[in-house]
Write a structure and sequence with these properties.
By secondary structure, the protein is of the alpha/beta class. Helices cover about 45% and strands about 15% of the residues. It contains 6 helices and 5 strands; from the N terminus they run E-H-E-H-E-H-E-H-E-H-H. It has helices at about 15-25, 45-55, 70-80, 90-100, 115-130, 135-145, and strands at about 5-10, 30-35, 65-70, 85-90, 105-110. Strands 2-1-3-5-4 form a 5-stranded parallel sheet, sandwiched between helices.
């Protein structure tokens, strides 16, 4: 899996913020796999979330960023894929904790609710923060179906 590639996808509402975040990622020396939107023409967020999920499943990137108007729809669509742990974040704290406690592999944000400065801060926290593991690992395992027994929470 390319440890230096981040996959980006957005619907038409997230197009401009996605492009802003693309520059931030490139400034950090990381590669970007940009799946679109490539203009402001209407495009459905479930399709963009599915394309990002496929890119991660195929090993073309190690983390992803999704953007739509609010971040809600695209995060719901992404989390329908078992290997995706998409976190809808609105500030640095939620982005940091999404990585530390949930091992989120996808950051979802809303272009109509976040300004570019806050979105940049969220992205940087998401990229810089490692997963803590430990007591959080068993919970993350349950998200992927690795531990499904009710007794596994002891």
């Amino acid at each position: 899996m390319p440890e230096n590639t981040v996959v980006l996808a957005a619907d038409h509402a997230g197009y401009e913020l996605k492009n802003t975040l693309k520059v931030v990622i490139e400034e950090r020396g990381l590669k970007v796999l940009d799946l679109g939107a490539h203009n402001g023409d209407s495009i459905d967020y479930p399709d963009m979330a599915a394309a990002l999920a496929k890119a991660l499943a195929d090993g073309r990137a190690y983390r992803g960023v999704l953007v739509c108007g609010t971040g809600i729809g695209i995060s719901i669509a992404a989390n329908r894929h078992l290997h995706i742990r998409a976190a809808l974040c609105h500030d640095v704290t939620t982005a940091r904790l999404a990585r530390q406690h949930n091992d989120a592999n996808v950051l979802a944000m809303g272009s109509r609710v976040l300004g570019p400065s806050v979105a940049r801060d969220c992205l940087e926290a998401f990229l810089d923060t490692p997963f803590e593991g430990g007591r959080h690992q068993r919970r993350v395992d349950k998200l992927s179906g690795a531990a499904t027994s009710p007794d596994s929470n002891r």
